[in-house]
Amino acid sequence: MASGDDDDPIIKEIDVYLAKSLGDKLYLFQYPVRPSTMTYDDVDHLAAKIKPKQQKVELEMLLNTMSPNYCRSKGEQIALNVDGTTYDETNTYSAKMMDKQTFSSIQSTTNTSRYAAAVFRKGELHITPLTGILQMRPSFSYLDKADNKTREREAANEGGDSSQDEAEEDAKAITVRFARPESEQARQRRIQSYEFLQKKQAEEPWVHLNYYGVKDSRSEHERQYLFCQSMDASENSELVKTPKEYLEMLMPPLAEEKVVKPVGPSNVLSMAQLRTLPLGEQVKTLMKNVKVMPFANLMGLLASGTDSTSVLRCIQQVALLVQGNWVVKSDVLYPKNTCSAHSGVPAEVLCRGRDFVMWRFTLERSVMRKEITSIIKLPPEDVKEFLEHVAVPRINRGWEFLLPTDVDFIKKHPDVAHRQNMLWLGIQSKLEKVFNFSKEDFMPKNSPQPEPACLSGEQRLQMAQERAKENQSSLQKDLDAKRAGSSIQRAVSNSKDEPMDTSSIPNGSINGYCSATSPNFNHTNGNGGSPANMPSPELQDFVKKTFRKHFVLTLNEFKRLFNLHVASMPAGWHVFQSISDHMLQDAILLCQCKQIMVPFPAGNSAAPDEQKVFGLWETGEDFDKHRRLLYDLFTKNYRVRRNMVQAKLTEELGDISKAQIDRLLNECCKSHAGMWYLKGTIHS
């Protein structure tokens, strides 16, 4: 030893022995949910089993059902939920009571090379390496069994209540898929998946064990193997190492690690690394990540001073123009010799299907997913991926293109727009041959055809003049109809000595509400129609039931509920036929409901049908007064605070309880960021 260590003299030397008898079967059990003073040594162990490869252990221990801390009724209920009322050998709790508990293990660490169990005896230290360190925690697998029993009972009840003469199910088309060769990358993902690991764990059989307590003679016999069995000096060599070598063995020097550049997430793009690429690669990388982008945004992502002409030249190589915005080409996303990650469809087929989706968006703002799928005949997962690249789903409107039409770019670069239009015509002709359709199949009847991306000044002037003539003719017809309607109204007013019917005014309002339910409402001419146009009793019944349940609905939400109701009716029922939005609104106003004229803020993105809000007005209950006062608040502002509602009700009706305020707001409103909105007027 060095002279500097003389101040730390050696007091005693201890011989250390390595015991190997239990080297491959010694486990350390930990019980993290129980204090060390409360051991399980005196608890009866009913069963034990292990999966050696996975180091998975399960122990069954007896519960003391006579303990004052044990709830007998709960134990019986759990056993009833798990095993049901029948008794057989497969029951989890044979005593019809939860009288045992299962402990399942998880590994504390996968590397136990630095851990060992040590025993000190007669000046000798014997150490045995640990095979595993396991934490034993209570298992609640019996809850899964109870859930399965509940589902089985529900399925049996549903099957018993079904009609005997129920028609046979219609034949459904199925999609047949053939397994494709698995790539190495796909194989690695599959091996690391949770489903694969669960399957591998289930394949290893359980090895059942016998449990012996701490004080059992067999346990005492096994503990002897913790001592080194061979004490012969010839087999135990003395450690002859210098202190420096010994320290290096205990703490080996760290090997120099090669500096590896960290890999960022696949959806994160480093702009610093992007700027080091050529311009063409920058544009391609950006479009591949973003999928759809206006040209102005693309220029903003590139380095300042980049020539826009060069960018235009590069963008046309990797993207196509759709509604004035650039959308990445299909062959950039799906290169040759690749396939779909969802279904294994080859890249060539994916490109044709995605080109069809993009071409449809050159014709209209929204498309229907079912219609797309029926034409291109691709799996739903792939079609959804195509749409998610360039569109967002809208309620009752299908998938709408992600960005507004970039008119400025088309005006600024008419030559590029014209060239792209020619490209789309070529793509269209190829798609027509592949999918056997014509462009006219997707044009709504009596709708104007989309204008070409580039028109001359004379062509635009001529089209504008034609549209002006059509509009003038339409306005003249409307004016004549209104004059005729006014003459009829005056004749009716002169023939009857009664107040003027204000409900005949379209969208007329009194104090912020549509007055369709005023006492003087005339069903014949007040709604602009004869008794033949009156809503059917079935429709009125549906309106009343719906508003009794929801109290406040936008026209858009009411139409959705109505469509669901119609779709749920049995086949062959034709109670509701050719019902327009105007007829639905009339039916709502005739069924003790009124339109609430909510003052939406400027720039509100809600659709017109979402801005038409209707509320239940009359039910015959005293609580109607509360709803009317709430509606009055929402004619002044589209959002209110709770204290404003409370102050209004207190001022008009006196003392109001908290329960009444809660009921009113829960029935008619939705809360967001501390403010209250009428149902359907906010999307949180």
Automatic annotation (TrEMBL):
Gene Ontology annotations for the cellular component aspect, listed alphabetically: RNA polymerase III complex
- Spell out the residue ranges making up region: Disordered: 146-171, 460-506
Q: Name the UniProt key words of this record, in alphabetical order.
A: DNA-directed RNA polymerase, Transcription
| Basic and acidic residues bias (residue ranges) | 146-156
A single Gene Ontology biological process assigned to it is: tRNA transcription by RNA polymerase III
Keyword check for Cell wall biogenesis/degradation: no
User: Record's InterPro entries?
Assistant: RNA_pol_III_Rpc5, RPC5_C
Ranges of residues in domain DNA-directed RNA polymerase III subunit RPC5 C-terminal: 444-684
Question: Per the record, a Pfam family?
Answer: RPC5
Query: Which PANTHER family does the protein's record reference?
Result: DNA-DIRECTED RNA POLYMERASE III SUBUNIT RPC5, DNA-DIRECTED RNA POLYMERASES III 80 KDA POLYPEPTIDE RNA POLYMERASE III SUBUNIT 5
* Identification of the protein by name: DNA-directed RNA polymerase III subunit RPC5
Annotated organism of origin: Channa argus
